[in-house]
Amino acid sequence: MGESIKINSFELENVKRVKAVSYEPSPNGLTIIGGKNGQGKTSILDAIAWTLGGAKFEPSSAVRDGSYNPPKLEVKLSNGLVVTRSGNSSTLKVVDPEGKKSGQRILDGFIGQLALDLPKFMEMSDKEKANELLKLLGVEDELNKLEGKHQEVYAKRHSIGQIATQKDKYAKELVGYDDVPLEPISASELIQQQQAILLKNAENQKKRNNVSAIQAQMVTINNLVDETQKKLEELQAKQAQLAEDYDIATTAAKDLEDESTAELEEQIKNVDAINQKVRANQERARALQEAADYKADYDNLTGELESIREDKNKLLESVQMPLSGLSIQDGVLIYNDRQWDCMSGAEQLKVATAIVRALNPKCGFVLMDKLEQMDVDTMKEFGAWLESEGLQVIATRVTNNQDECSIIIEDGHIKGEEYSNVAAPVNETKPENEWGGF
Prior knowledge:
Among the domains are: 7-112 and 360-414, Rossmann fold (3-Layer(aba) Sandwich), CATH 3.40.50; 187-279. Helices cover 50% and strands 15% of the residues. The chain has 12 helices and 14 strands. It has helices at 41-53, 104-108, 113-116, 118-122, 126-137, 140-173, 187-227, 232-254, 262-269, 271-317, 345-359, 376-389, and strands spanning 7-15, 18-23, 29-35, 72-77, 82-86, 91-95, 101-102, 326-329, 332-335, 338-339, 365-368, 392-398, 407-410, 413-414. The protein has a 6-stranded antiparallel β-sheet with strand order 2-1-4-5-6-7. Strands 11-12-3-13-14 form a 5-stranded mixed β-sheet, sandwiched between helices. The two termini are 27 Å apart. This is AAA family ATPase. Keywords: Coiled coil.
């Protein structure tokens, strides 16, 4: 790549507030045009932008008030081109070092539009600034794909997060009960258990009744023994047998205990209430599980988002930024860990200048208005940085302090130079300033 193109000199007459200004800016660093408001500082920048940028930069009222002559503009560039606009129609003429004439197309080939209109970049949204840099870095399409995937996953995660929160809230609002079964109980099973116990108790009662019956028979037989001696032997044998049966029956019935059905009866009576509590516990457990499942999905998507962010950061780390400390995070410019609205005015100008220069490396100059937002020390640092980068900045600053400026504009011409209808020669010698070229 060849050396970037700078402005060697400019001669401007009768444009906006400018009467006649002729000057050779420093090829590197800062050239500061000072003066009070309304004296023609910004008019100089507008005139240079119009000369080089074409009709889109033409002021709506180009002719200086009170002048009968049309604007006459000339800018000489370091590649040897001489660009002029003159006459009532402001006709453009571009002449190369060999005397050949050309037009606006050759200028557009190496002059960055944002270099002529830095406020356009400064006024862009954070997203638009970042997009300009991404175009420059050549990763716009790939980063946009990652950004689209990030937004898709973020929206999905957001939706699942809302559902998880709702499910968890719903589950925690449900009533829970202790000391109830995990599953609903069956009334028919309880009734079957009750009937089995009742049947067993009936058998026990039969055995008790049998004891009583044998005992009654013994009484009868004993009476018969007294009444009839002749049947004594038969009755005694019968008596002995009954006594044996009595002993057996007594032994069988002695340890019998009847089981209570009160608990089953109570459960049967309360089966609906118990089952209602069981179902409530089951619903609560199901809702809590749903909430936990959605929370797990949310966490998984959070991990996916982190992975996408890492891919984006790796992509941006793999490219060369035009300024140390400059990066793009979440689609916006970051300089020294600060977003655009948190940068100082000086930092914003430095970032904008670096990006605008990188967008078109052939163009080695930038026009910059309102440099008064920089203090003197910051301006010195900025000028030194421009020199180190081989950049030329022609800027305006509201001040009459000669120590802070390259020239001061007063009433449309350079202060200290007598105004005439002919612009001053551009090859006059000017003192070098110790701040990065101005």
